Amino acid sequence: MIQHLRNALAQLPPLRIASASFIDPSLSLIGPGWAFNSVSAWRLCENGVLLFGWSEKNVEEHIGRLVGNSIVSVEAQSRFLAGDPAFELSDGSWLEVFSDYPIDPWTLRLPGMTFVGSPSDATQVDSPSVGSQDGD
After folding, report:
1. Domain residues of the chain, as ranges?
2. How far apart are CA 90 and CA 114, in angstroms?
3. Sign of the CA dihedral 30, 34, 40, 45?
4. What is the phi/psi pair of residue 42, to 5°?
5. Residues with Cβ < 8 Å from 131, sequence gap 6 or more?
6. For position 123, what pLDDT does the model report?
7. Which domain of life is it from (predicted)?
8. What confidence score (pLDDT) does residue 81 get?
9. Which residue among 18, 34, 103, 108 has its CA within the 20 to 30 Å range from the CA of 12?
10. CA 18, CA 40: separation in Å to the nearest integer?
11. Which residues, other chains included, contact 132 with Cβ-Cβ below 8 Å and sequence gap of 6+?
C-alpha cells in the first residue's frame, strides 16, 4: 500500500495543504485536487521530538501549523504495521498516522485514485514484489 502511494505521489507535485482541521476524532487535510482524512490516532514530529498529536489538549490551536506546508514524501509509519503512512512535510516535520480500528480507515483522495488504509486488511501490506509485476 505505502509503496503504491509513494509511486502515485511521485507522479504529482507536492500536495500543498490549503486547509487543516481537527474535530475530534477526525483530522482533515485538504489541498487543490486532493484530500486526506483520518479518525485514527496521529502525531506531528520533528527531529525525533513530538510537537503535538491528536490527544493533546487544545490540539485545534496547533493544527494551523500544517497549513501552507506540502506533503513531499511518504514512508511506512511502522515496520510492524506497514499499511499506515508517515508523511514528510515541506518544513521537515512528519505526520504519522496510527490506524487503530478496522472500520475507521484513513483515506487519501488524489486525482483519479483513492487510497484507503485499514489495519486489519492484509492487502495493505506491501509484498517484496510490489511493482515488479504490475508495471508500477
Report:
1. 1-117
2. 22
3. negative
4. -155, 160
5. 3, 4, 7
6. 62
7. Bacteria
8. 76
9. 103
10. 21
11. none
Q: Coil, strand or helix: which one is 61?
A: helix
Q: Which pLDDT score, from 0 to 100, does residue 50 have?
A: 96
* Predicted pLDDT of residue 122: 66
In sequence order, which ranges of 30-133 are alpha helices (DSSP H)? Answer: none
Burial grade of 5 (CB within 10 A; 0-12, 13-18, 19 or more): buried
* Residue 113: φ, ψ to 5°: -160, 155
- Cβ neighbours for 26, distance < 8 A, ≥ 6 positions apart: 37, 38, 39
Burial 43-69 (b: 16+ CB within 10 A, else e): bbeeeeeeebbbeeeebeeebebbeeb
Helix (H, G, I), strand (E, B) or coil at 10: helix
pTM higher than the cut 0.70: yes
**Local structure of 123: helix, strand or coil:** helix
Below-50 pLDDT ranges, the chain = 127-136
pLDDT of residue 36: 98
